[in-house]
Specification:
With about 240 residues, this protein is of the alpha/beta class. The protein contains 9 helices and 10 strands. It has 2 domains: about 160 residues, 3-Layer(aba) Sandwich (Rossmann fold); about 70 residues, no CATH class. It has a 6-stranded mixed sheet with strand order 6-7-8-3-9-10, with helices on both faces. Strands 2-1-4-5 form a 4-stranded antiparallel sheet, covered by helices on one side.
């Protein structure tokens, strides 16, 4: 059974469709990439999955349960975690306090129950040396790692990643890819929106291509990137 499934999900803003009968499924432990030009509806799709935006029609299923009308908090507690394209930490809280807050509210647990898990997440994400540093003083790579750490602290079964490689150097990007790959190897399903294609395709085993809110292709990364339609629409190459 898929861990996450979108069934004919549609959403429009006025006369502009942001998602048009989008259907796909994510299997437990899978790594799925979503690509498409700017304005294709990728981030809107994440907001529909997390419940930050309501669908006009269609269904969102998680673990076989219809969560289409469920509020964002319920979906988070069920196991849907996400990062945002622009990291949004609590600037004045320390790195550890940011992760602790996510763990307590994302799991409805006490500080004593989640402190150990938070410490392990900081080790896994390479932030343990910065545990007592205010989040507002972090570098871009560190903020992106913190964004990921906070999402992990909620205990996700599916982790939605929104352009976490953007703005990083090649070395920083490589380190982040290794981290995402390790998270996926431990059994967390990944759904990753990314414009840094070499990073994305080194992790995911399937790609979904969006254009103007529609799924125009899905399949194995090498085949998708070799597609004439994808090259013309996504890469802007006239074939």
């Amino acid at each position: 059974m898929p861990i996450l499934e979108l069934d004919q999900v549609s959403k429009s803003f006025g006369a502009v469709p942001a998602a048009e009968a989008v259907s796909f499924a994510v299997e437990p432990g899978e790594a799925l990439g979503i690509i498409g030009p700017n304005g294709a509806g990728k981030s809107t799709l994440f907001n529909l999955i997390t419940g930050n935006i309501g669908v006009d029609s269609g269904r969102v299923l998680f673990g076989g349960e219809d969560v289409t009308r469920a509020p964002p908090m319920r979906r988070c507690l069920a196991g849907i975690g996400r990062t945002f394209q622009i990291p949004q930490p609590f600037q004045r809280l320390t790195v550890f306090e940011n992760v602790l807050t996510a763990a307590m509210f994302g799991n409805r647990s006490s500080q004593a129950e989640v402190s150990g898990d938070c410490a392990r997440i900081l080790v896994d994400t390479g932030l343990v040396a910065h545990a007592n540093v205010p989040a507002g003083k972090l570098t871009l790579l560190q903020r992106k790692r913190l964004e990921l750490a906070r999402a992990l602290a909620t205990g996700p079964k599916v982790l939605l990643l929104d352009e976490i490689a953007g703005g990083l150097t090649e070395a920083e990007c490589g380190a982040l890819v290794d981290l995402v790959r390790a998270i996926n190897a431990r059994g967390t399903a990944i759904v990753w929106i990314e414009h840094v294609l070499h990073a994305l395709t080194s992790v995911v085993n399937r790609l979904v291509v969006l254009d103007f809110g529609r799924v125009i292709a899905t399949g194995e990364p090498a085949a998708i990137m070799a597609s004439r339609q994808v090259r013309e629409i996504y890469l802007g190459i006239e074939v």
